[in-house]
Amino acid sequence: MSRKVSFRIPYFTQWGQHLLICGSDRLLGSWNVKKGLLLKPSHQGEELIWSGSIQVPPGFQSEYNYYVVDDTRNILRWEVGKKRKLLLPDGLQDGQLLELHDLWQTGSDNIPFRSAFKDVIFRTSWSLGVERPLGITQNKLDQDGSAILQFRICCPYLEEGTSIYVLGSSLKLGQWKIQDGLKLAYAGDSFWQADCVMGKDDFPLKYPFYCKYGKAGTSVECGASRELSIDVTTGYSRFIVLSDGLMREMPWRGAGVAVPMFSVRSEADLGVGEFLDLKLLVDWAVESGFHLVQLLPINDTSVNCMWWDSYPYSSLSVFALHPLYLRVEAISENIPEDIKQEIREARVQLDKKDVDYEASLATKLSIAKKIFAREKETVLKSKSFQEFFSENQEWLKPYAAFCFLRDFFETSERSQWGRFSEFSKEKLEKLISKESLHYEVVCFHYYIQFHLHLQLSEAAEYARKKGVVLKGDLPIGVDRNSVDTWVYPNLFRMNTSTGAPPDYFDKKGQNWGFPTYNWEEMSKDNYGWWRARLTQMGKYFTAYRIDHVLGFFRIWELPEHALTGLCGKFRPSIPISQEELESEGLWDFNRLTQPYIGKELLQEKFGASWTIVASAFLNEYQKGFYEFKEECNTEKKIASALKSFLETSMLVESEEKLRRKLFDLLQNVALIKDPEEPRKFYPRFNIEDTTSFKDLDPHSQNVLKRLYYDYYFCRQEGLWRQNALKTLPVLLDSSDMLACGEDLGLIPSCVHPVMQELGLVGLRIQRMPSEPGLEFGIPSQYGYMTVNAPSCHDCSTLRAWWEEDEERRHRFFQAVIGYDELPPDQCTPEIVHFVLRQHVEAPSMWSIFPLQDLLALKGDYTTRPVIEETINDPTNPKHYWRYRVHVTMESLLDDKDLTKTIKDLVRGSGRCYPQKDLESGQANDVESAKPHLGSELPSLTQTNGLSKKEAVVFEGAF
Questions:
Q1: pTM of the predicted model as reported, rounded to 2 decimal places
Q2: How does pLDDT run across 854-890, given as a tens digit for each residue?
Q3: CA dist 76 → 29, 66, 572, 721 (Å)
Q4: Which of 10, 357, 401, 580 could cross-link to 310 by cystine, CB 3.0-4.6 Å?
Q5: Could you tell me how far CA 573 lies from the centroid of its own chain?
């Protein structure tokens, strides 16, 4: 006895691609794709339909998914999201057919099940009970040629007292009348289903939509009509499961505010924002109509124990929280009066215009130590601490030991730690044992992390209850002197540095100084370090930003001795081989890979002083041509030698200018030789700008131009796509957080398709458009799976940009705002309002605004010089991250005019906003909550870039 199960799915493939099904049962390959069920394609109208069938025994069950493979069954693509379930209907008899009509599941289909939506935005106080599980039917096949249709739809959010119906042309589907339509039952996991018997005369069947019907009214699906045709001439009966994916509603759109944790100012803080200040920020977000608060990284960065550590992307530990954000008053209920007085005095002393990183951190740790001395026994023995320690000891113990060794040896440079330079578990256990003399010091670091955890958890839970998504930040790198590189040195390539090639931010590229990842080693335990890292983040955040998501496709790798980011190569990448160059007639590899320094170039760079510079740094290896001396043939060596040179030299030129010119000489190469494989080469970025290239013969130039274009824009695409599909799904599956990728810079063509496939939300900054040929992005044309913003922490604020670039400001005023007159010198609140409105009306899932750009809506907050609002200067590797909002959160909460202005912007755009009565237990978006369905919003139209209402505002302003 057996039943026949057939599969059917519409999917367009490219030449050489195939679809197959792989599942948990041996008939579907036991999750071995090589043994899966290969499907056959056929054209039906404009669709390419893949289908196949198997014979199964009674009671058969299996999970399964669809895969795209090549001719040898290597996986090219797979479905994202939950595994499908195959259960035979209870009424299916021997010889009868079960047809599964599926739709491909993309990453965007999984968005509503991310914690940002499931646990925050669409959170409800009521739950649904399963009315009819999958596989249970209410009907039986009663005649030959009849069919039972099971309609199945996924609806992640439903208001209490609301039902789902399917409507169609058949009498059994109500003939378009809701009251007569087919009501669906809840089957669990956000799936709704209903079945009915259809006869031959019911086909072809049109059922354009599902709809919600309840107290809040009727909500009908949008999108194209659905139609089902079957061959009724066969005469046999069948059971057809119509899996129609997500209910097609208008995509949910929300707004948020972005501000670094250290920048928040409150009446209670000690010179820097603290985790408990997030509760005030959340309150302000709700008042302003925002569903999201975005932070920069909050991990401990205390590597150097000085202001350099203000750089939040250089993690000392990817697990530990930064003690800077601790509220010392909240760590105990029994603080003596003398310590309370010390806190009050410190609050006054540290209440400065900018963050004093060193003073704030030192003060907090000093006060915390005094409180710890009084209550250590009680806290360390408490049940809550013991639970925290048990859950986090894998990273907490090495972190505390590292902090002790850093302070004891007064450096994080492990080579100075003697026998502790190399990590081992045996050494660690001795170091942190209760018998050691410094056990109390180690426990202090446990104690600080425990209270940071409690305070951030309190703030995170507060945000959830208020319907506000807390969005964290996942840095792409870790400091080379970090806990992670100490404990897991095999996971990092310590002789390299990460960065970014030349782009909008820096014409010389960026060198972040982090070691690159050893992905091959990381893959051996299925990227356990990454999975643990994301799991830890998920304790506090419901969304996160992946810093430099391009690094998961390929990273810009530099030698450890480099200081700038220009002479690097992509890792992984397919290099240019020596054989490839020789076949093109290029053979003088020393000429192409060594700095090309002629007398004329030296005279051009240094003028009359060229001989002094040449004698100090160069050797003349043949008449008129020079090479760097051994002691200064790298950027780090040059920087070191230059200091001693200037101490005795009479040159008046600044050290910075001389260093830049010497670096230009060193970087004047056409090709970069691979340090590990000397027969492999990489074209230097912007090769045509070098005199090394310009002085070559025309044939060599043409060959190198062609190879340059091929290396940067063609040959790597498949490799980079494959690399991203190995690593990114691990991140996405490690937590339920909503993932957003920072995809600015030089974007390979494979990036956006992969992000769309995996459900990764991209970033769009208007003045850094990713579309070729545009100077300014067009928000009304952004895709739904994006976050849009007028600026971000890595660039100047809207107000600062307006004032710093007169020519570009003029072009923006003409092309975007639509005025031919000269723009005002200052970025007025009217201009800010227009730009913010452009963004909030865009189709993007999120509009997230830096707090500085929001404050610029009101003239009272624009008296501060714009330069003081800068968070980061990407061109300065030693930038002091110290921007502090010049108004307290308490004052902003009292400013009803500003919050009304912002909320009106959000409301007028059709974006959803959190309700203020969340504690009543109602859903967070009672008025307009709609789950994302992956469909795009129609473009928002404007006349000459300006809406009529906004035009009136500008006419009055100018």
A1: 0.92
A2: 999 999 999 999 999 999 998 788 899 999 999 999 9
A3: 17, 11, 18, 9
A4: 357
A5: 23
